[in-house]
Amino acid sequence: MSAPRGAYQHIDHGFEPVFDERSRVLVLGSFPSVLSRANDFYYGNPQNRFWRVAAACLGEPVPATIAEKRWMLLAHGIALWDVIASCDIVGSSDASIRNVRPADIGRVTGVAPIERVVCNGAAAGRLYRRHLEPITGLPATMLPSTSPANAAWSLDRLIGRWSQELG
């Protein structure tokens, strides 16, 4: 993998996790993309397939607003957050992430009876294993990334694999 282009910036996550006392599955990404940070919510890049995949797995229409996205997740016992609270990063490049401060996972696990952790992509899985699994004691299932950069996985193939964990 080539070195990321551009300047490193130290970025704080910027928005809250989605969870409540009924959340049983925790879906973790690595860190919000530039578009997600601009939109103040998860998977803000319209090319990212997360919301289409989740909706298909849960038998719901694809949510359009942040309120609809929150409702869909919470109605199905799903919490959503990222492994990283802050880091140095170039743009949206997971490969560039350094100087990681992990999320305070106890904010979620102290309230929600999380039974299963699912990571959206390899970077989230590696970061979870290194920084958060020792705290939670819960192994994670690493699923293929819904990022548009993961062109090897079609939407239908992603839905098939993700439905094994969310469906």
User: Could you tell me how far the N terminus lies from the C terminus, measured between alpha carbons in angstroms?
Assistant: 34 Å
User: What spatial order of strands do you see in the largest sheet?
Assistant: 3-2-6-7
Q: What count of domains describes the coordinates?
A: 1
Q: What is the CATH C-level name?
A: Alpha Beta
Shape, per Cα inertia axes:
globular
Task: Please mark out the parts with pLDDT under 50 across 5 or more consecutive residues, or reply none.
Answer: none
How does the major sheet shape up?
Answer: 4 strands, parallel
- Corresponding CATH superfamily: Uracil-DNA glycosylase-like domain
Number of helices: 7
Helix coverage percent: 25-40%
**Kindly state the mean pLDDT as a whole number?**
90
CATH architecture designation = 3-Layer(aba) Sandwich
SSE series:
EEHHHEEEHEHHEH
Predict the CATH topology.
Answer: Uracil-DNA Glycosylase, subunit E
Q: How many E-type strands?
A: 7
- Structural class estimated from helices and strands: alpha/beta
Strand % is 15-25%
* Integer-rounded radius of gyration: 15 Å
Please explain how this structure is put together.
The chain has 167 residues and is an alpha/beta fold. The protein has one domain (9-166): Uracil-DNA glycosylase-like domain (Uracil-DNA Glycosylase, subunit E, 3-Layer(aba) Sandwich), CATH 3.40.470. Helix content is 33%, strand content 20%. The chain is built from 7 helices and 7 strands, in the order E-E-H-H-H-E-E-E-H-E-H-H-E-H. The strands form 2 sheets. A 4-stranded parallel β-sheet has the order 3-2-6-7, sandwiched between helices. A 3-stranded antiparallel β-sheet has the order 1-4-5, with no helix packed on it. A hairpin with an 8-residue loop joins strand 4 and strand 5 (98-102). Helix 2 packs across helix 7. 37% of the residues are buried. This is G:T/U mismatch-specific DNA glycosylase.
